[in-house]
């Protein structure tokens, strides 16, 4: 176990180093100049333009040679400083992300977890019930395959505009200020339900279909047939099938949870929900190196941590991994 | 112990019930000018500041009303040229900063002189032609100029926000240029109350000077300035009456207006006031765009009328050949004779014959003309990806050009690439409007069109049109007293003639001052029948009419 973990940790550290380096390089290869973008919003005289350009270039240390910028980047990273956003000048990137992340977590964690649990249960159930499999599952196929943007707009239009029961934008009413009051919590929930619902529908379908296919595959596999031939009760066979089928689903779940900081860009655009996805998009559009770097850094950390947890969880849920560690061969 | 716990629980419950909700009848919901989460209220960096920082919080010396073409003294009581080199400014007495301190001549002097100390402040160039500022008394200043640039000076009067000396004099250069200036203290009608990622909330300044001195008062107690991430959200909100004023470009307004009673400036076509001119820039450093005849043929080939109809559903107007906005302040310099003589209009036949006369003929029979030297012509027109109205527009332009035999196609790079190509000079043709916005003088417009050439053209003249004569004329125009319209006209006509003869860029249509309002909560919106206020809440435009609009609104 110790050796296994040590090896994993070294691999993760190396991955982190390369991922962060790539994260630093990629924005710098993008066309566009962040300072020009910042200043293009201003109308001013020619002479001022160059002066200002040079000054702000220096403020963001973009006048230094690239290798120096790269070293500075690692240096400030270890101090917990992600730099200043150009798009949101002069906010520090860390503050920008800190403000947006809670919205993402409160929206995405429940959506991913609930859809995962419900989707797996439903998929496993549908695999055994021909009728359900033939009637309801095709609907989920359609919903999952629908362009998300369109589905979101449709939901917003129907529940928000036609029925008028849910608000269609923001995380809480524009007429409110956050406070720990029932009124506010209620308002927050009302704003939360549509983006949550749209994510739930799409992901539920994905999980259910995946589970259903896996279960059918497992039930058709050799060991199931063997057990059946041996006269094992159907319930036991299903239990084994479920345990095998759920493994890839766990990987999927962990990966989903890992990219949570990236938010759900489409959701945030459709429902004007303040999260990090939209910030990242704006960062890219404005060539904001620091914001892009910061957002991706969180994504990298998220994915690595999630993978690390899967590695550990697999030890528990997958006997093959456990056996592999103690030197047995399969 | 138990009693104590219950008491604490009751206390928690009690505070939990105290939410803060704004009253609908006192709150104005506005949108369209906030493109990023609010995070900067620094009037020295207006390009990064939240809309309203200038206008609602910090105020300029003058306001400018583009509809009546009038400069309205604001923090200034009056001002005028004492002689050709001296501008006398008298300030209003009784104006206070929102921290209670009185505003006076020292603040104005400080605001201008700060840019002398710190050349990185964007208006520092004024010190190249301003000699010194003399304080006569607490409310009178004399500006002594070495070389008065009257037109530019007039734009500064309503664009530069005055900052309080007592709060800014001890700030470091860095704090001034890169500070967020949270909790801004100005003289304005509103205070910055609170903000979140998708909103900025302004609270009325109960002791605003203009209420006492001018007898005006903004009606809304609060302005919630919101940021909608997509058009469909803004549209849904305005239909439901949740958004009171929208300065977003919303497609389909002519149709929706009828169904949902949305208020616009004009009751009928074109619905919107004109705000700026979209130009087709031609890269004059590249072949065949370096050929005047070719550029003129392009001008004749483009059907702006078709763009206005198909893309904008007639929400905007096609431009006149000079690109002048249909405003009194600009049109007084519009020389009909010059336009009749050298102007252009949509006429593909003329375009074709012009091409032919200049030697552009189809030699290889592929349906497209070749350059006089026989080389093939293949051009691209660019606009940033996602700017849907412009994307549709350049598709039409490309089709128009193909119709006269010019092989041009529409391309949509992302904004970064667009910027690189446009500013770096590697594009063929591109649409841009960044500096053609309305102002008190055509000087700003021409300064943008004829920006001096450098390696990196980040702020105008993207086609790199090189003509020192026109720059001289423009400086001469700038040096002509603002009131001397006759002298100004003479110079302007010469510039107009050069522009039309050389066609460095082609004016296409006027982008609108997008303005849609809901009458669900607030009435008496500006319109063609009055009240006549320029209905803009964009950054830097509050002082053109947006603030006055607030004083005329009536709660329903």
UniProtKB/TrEMBL annotation, chain A:
Organism: Kosmotoga arenicorallina S304
Keywords: Membrane, Transmembrane, Transmembrane helix, Transport
UniProt-listed GO biological process terms: transmembrane transport
GO cellular-component term (any): plasma membrane
Regions crossing the membrane: 9-26, 100-118, 139-172, 192-210, 245-271, 291-317
Similarity section: Belongs to the binding-protein-dependent transport system permease family.
Membrane topology: Multi-pass membrane protein
Subcellular localization(s) per the UniProt record: Cell membrane; Membrane
Lineage of origin: Bacteria, Thermotogati, Thermotogota, Thermotogae, Kosmotogales
Domain ABC transmembrane type-1: 101-310
UniProt-recorded name of the protein: Peptide ABC transporter permease
UniProtKB/TrEMBL annotation, chain B:
Transmembrane segments: none
Name of the molecule in the record: ABC transporter substrate-binding protein
Species, as recorded: Kosmotoga arenicorallina S304
SUPFAM superfamilies assigned: Periplasmic binding protein-like II
GO BP term (any one): peptide transport
Location of the Solute-binding protein family domain: 70-448
InterPro entries to which the protein is assigned, alphabetical: Peptide/Ni-bd, SBP_5, SBP_5_dom
One GO CC annotation: ATP-binding cassette (ABC) transporter complex
Domain of life: Bacteria
């Amino acid at each position: 176990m110790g050796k296994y973990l040590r090896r994993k940790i070294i691999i993760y550290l190396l991955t982190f180093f390369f991922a962060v380096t790539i994260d630093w390089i990629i924005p710098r290869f993008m066309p566009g100049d962040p300072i020009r973008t910042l200043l293009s919003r201003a109308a001013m005289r020619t002479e001022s333009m160059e002066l200002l350009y040079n000054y702000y270039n220096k403020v963001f240390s973009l006048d230094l040679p690239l290798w120096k910028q790269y070293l500075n980047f690692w240096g400030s990273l270890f101090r917990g400083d992600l730099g200043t956003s150009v798009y949101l000048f002069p906010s520090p990137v860390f503050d920008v992300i800190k403000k947006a992340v809670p919205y993402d977590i409160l929206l995405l964690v429940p959506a991913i977890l609930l859809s995962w649990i419900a989707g797996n249960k439903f998929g496993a159930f549908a695999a055994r019930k021909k009728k359900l499999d033939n009637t309801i599952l095709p609907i989920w196929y359609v919903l999952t395959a629908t362009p998300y943007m369109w589905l979101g707009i449709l939901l917003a239009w129907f529940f928000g505009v036609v029925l008028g029961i849910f608000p269609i934008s923001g995380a809480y009413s524009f007429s409110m200020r956050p406070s720990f009051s029932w009124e506010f919590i209620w308002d927050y929930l009302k704003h939360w339900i549509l983006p949550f619902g749209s994510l739930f529908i799409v992901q539920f379908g994905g999980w259910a279909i995946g589970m259903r296919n896996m279960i059918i595959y497992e039930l058709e596999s050799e060991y199931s047939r063997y057990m059946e031939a041996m006269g094992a009760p159907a319930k036991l066979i299903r239990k084994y099938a479920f345990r095998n089928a759920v493994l890839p689903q766990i990987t999927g779940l962990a990966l989903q949870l890992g990219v949570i900081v990236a938010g759900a860009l489409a959701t945030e655009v459709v429902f004007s929900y303040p999260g990090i996805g939209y910030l990242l998009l704006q960062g890219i559009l404005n060539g904001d190196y620091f914001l892009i770097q910061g957002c991706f850094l969180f994504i990298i950390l998220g994915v690595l941590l999630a993978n690390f947890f899967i590695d550990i969880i697999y030890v528990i849920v997958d006997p093959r991994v456990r056996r592999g560690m103690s030197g047995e061969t399969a | 112990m138990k009693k104590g716990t219950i008491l604490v629980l009751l206390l928690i419950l009690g505070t939990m019930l105290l939410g803060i909700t704004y009253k609908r009848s006192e709150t104005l919901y506005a949108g369209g000018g906030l493109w990023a989460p609010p995070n900067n209220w620094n009037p020295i960096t207006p390009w990064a500041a939240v809309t309203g920082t200038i206008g609602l919080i910090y105020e300029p010396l003058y306001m400018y009303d583009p509809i009546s073409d009038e400069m309205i003294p604001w923090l200034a009581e009056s001002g005028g040229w004492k002689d050709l080199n001296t501008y006398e400014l008298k300030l209003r007495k009784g104006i206070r900063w929102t921290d209670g301190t009185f505003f006076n001549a020292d603040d104005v002097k400080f605001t201008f002189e700060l840019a002398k100390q710190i050349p990185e402040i964007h208006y520092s160039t004024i010190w190249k032609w301003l000699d010194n500022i003399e304080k006569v008394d607490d409310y009178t200043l004399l500006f002594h100029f070495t070389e008065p640039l009257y037109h530019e000076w007039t734009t500064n009067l309503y664009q530069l926000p005055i900052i309080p000396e007592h709060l800014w004099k001890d700030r470091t250069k860095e704090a001034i240029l890169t500070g967020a200036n949270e909790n801004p203290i100005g003289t304005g009608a509103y205070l910055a109350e609170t903000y979140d990622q998708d909103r900025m909330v302004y609270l009325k300044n109960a002791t605003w000077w203009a209420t006492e001195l001018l007898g005006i008062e903004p009606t809304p107690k609060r302005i919630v300035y919101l940021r909608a991430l997509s058009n469909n959200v803004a549209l849904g909100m305005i239909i439901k009456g949740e958004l009171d004023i929208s300065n977003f470009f919303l497609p389909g307004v002519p149709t929706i207006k009828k169904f949902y009673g949305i208020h616009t400036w004009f009751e009928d076509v074109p619905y919107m006031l004109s705000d700026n001119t979209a130009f087709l820039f031609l890269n004059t450093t590249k072949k065949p765009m370096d050929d005047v005849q070719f550029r003129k043929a392009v001008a004749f080939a483009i059907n702006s009328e078709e763009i206005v109809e198909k893309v904008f559903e007639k929400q905007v107007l096609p431009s006149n050949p000079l690109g002048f906005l249909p405003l009194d302040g600009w049109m007084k310099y519009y020389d009909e004779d010059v336009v009749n003589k050298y102007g252009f209009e949509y006429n593909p036949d003329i375009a074709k014959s012009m091409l032919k006369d200049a030697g552009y003929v189809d030699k290889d029979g592929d349906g497209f003309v070749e350059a006089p030297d026989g080389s093939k012509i293949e051009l691209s027109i660019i606009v940033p990806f996602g700017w849907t109205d412009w994307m549709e527009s350049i598709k039409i332009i490309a089709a128009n050009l193909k119709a006269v035999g010019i092989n041009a196609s529409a391309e949509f790079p992302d904004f970064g690439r667009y910027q690189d190509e446009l500013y770096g000079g590697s594009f063929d043709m591109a649409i841009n409007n960044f500096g053609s916005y309305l102002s008190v003088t055509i000087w700003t417009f021409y300064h943008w069109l004829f920006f001096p050439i450098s390696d990196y053209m980040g702020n105008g003249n993207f086609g790199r049109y090189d003509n020192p004569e026109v720059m001289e004329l423009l400086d001469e125009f700038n040096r002509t007293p603002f009131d001397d319209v006759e002298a100004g006209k003479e110079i302007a006509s010469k510039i107009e003639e050069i522009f039309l003869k050389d066609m460095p860029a082609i004016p296409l249509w006027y982008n609108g001052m997008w303005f849609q309002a809901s009458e669900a909560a607030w009435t008496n919106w500006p319109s063609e029948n009055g009240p006549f206020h320029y209905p803009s809440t964009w950054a830097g435009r509050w002082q053109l009419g947006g603030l006055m609009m607030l004083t005329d609104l009536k709660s329903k």
